[in-house]
Amino acid sequence: MNGSDRPRWLSENPSKAWGEKFFLLYSPVWMTMIGLVMALGITERVGQWGFIAIGSAVALPLIVVPALARDENAIGRRWYQTYWLKANLYIAIFNFAANYFGSEYFFDVLGMVYEYPMIRINLDATLVGSGAQRVPIIMYLLTQAYFITYHTTAVVVLRRIRTSRLPVGGLVWPVLLATVAYFWAWMETKSMANPWIASQFYYRNMARMLSHGSLFYSLYFIASFPIFYHLDEGRDASWSLKKTAGAALSASMIMMFLLDFAAGIFGAI
Predict the structure, then answer these.
(1) In terms of Cα–Cα distance, which of 101, 106, 105 is closest to 124?
(2) Residues of the domain holding 77
(3) Angle at the Cα of 166 (from 164 to 167), degrees rounded to 5?
(4) Distance, CA of 17 to CA of 116 (rounded, Å)
(5) Is the pTM here over 0.70, yes or no?
(6) With bands split at pLDDT 50, 70 and 90, how would you rate the model's confidence at 168?
C-alpha cells in the first residue's frame, strides 16, 4: 500500500491539508468564545454594535490569521489560489443563502424564534416566508465559523471512511453523508437553544425540532457537503475563485429546492 492508498484524515493537497488543520484548530477556539459569551450573559448586556463586535471577533480570524501566517508561494500558489481563501468564499456564499432564504423556513416551518430588539441591522428575504421575523446581521458572521467547522469535519471524516477499506459505493455513501449532516444539525440545535440565551433564541417545540426539525436542517448539509468535499481535493487540484463561487451557488440552489420540497411534503412541525 503506497502513501496515496493509505486511509487518511487530511487531504493529499498540501494547501487543503493546511487549511483543514487550521479550521479544525480554530473550531474549539470559537466554540469557547461563544460558550463564554452565552454563559456570562454578555448578550443580555450589549447592544447592536456589541453583537456585531462579537460576531466579527468570531469570523475575522478565519481570514486574518491565514492571511498573515500562511505563504504558499513555495508550493506555487498565490494568495488567491489558497484553499483557506476558497473555503471561506464558498462558505460565505452558502452562508448568505442559508441565512437570507433558509432562515425563513426555520421561522415558519421549524418554529425558530429570534428576539433581538436591540439589533436594527437585519437582512433577509422580502418575498420568501411570512416576514414576521427578521435575521440579524450578526447571524451571518457567526454562521461563517459554524459552517466552516461543520464542512471541514464532515470532509475529514468522510475522507477517512472513503480512503479506508470499507465499501462506500452504492447507497453507503449517501447514508454516510446524511448521517454526518444530521449529526451537525442536531448538535447545533441542542447546543444553541439553551437556557443561557432562552430570552433571545428558542424553538417553540424543542423536542420536535431535535427529532424532526434536525432532519429538515440536515438538508442544508446534504446539499452542500458533497460539493464542498471536492474543493481542491486532488493532490494538485486548484479550483479557481470563479469555480468555487459557482459550486457554492449550486449548493445554495439545491438547498433551497430541498427545503421547499420538504416544507411542502411535511408541513410545519
Answers:
(1) 101
(2) 3-266
(3) 125
(4) 39
(5) yes
(6) low
